[in-house]
# Entry
Amino acid sequence: FLPLTEEETRQVFEKLQKYLGHNMTQLIDRQDHTHVFRLHKDRVYYMSEHLLKKAECIARKNLICCGTQFGKFTHTRKFRLTITCLDYLARLARYKVWVKSNGEQSFLYGNHIVKAHLRRMTEDTPQNAGVVIFSEGDVPLGFGAAARTTDGCRTAGTEQIVVYHQADIGEYLREEADLV
# Structure
């Protein structure tokens, strides 16, 4: 596992900042163990230093993954979050969206969220902010970007898009081979 370069670290933190805001410090400054981001085969992993030391005993070509995959770098070297980091995003997210039960399946099939499926939204959510999507039972379903502000959602028509889909837990089935 290689440490991230300065440019890679900047891209990862900028993307996480979009979703976590000031809560990002809770990801880095943890009380239990020191956690780090590491790069392996263009994928960014988040793990404790203790786990990193154990993983260094394994040959790099034999190691599939270690820790939680937070995202990957595309061929054009842009960072993209993957669904595997949803547990951390859901716990620390700054802006959240809850969908009605009739909108869950649509979202899990990879569709954007329309106003008719919106149950509620965190107050003062700005446009284009990173949001985590939850079911009515507070189960994290995925994440995306707010297409409208909170106030803009109130005045939007029922078929207007309010959240752009970026990733959902249905990807575990649809893209099973690409996640590892």
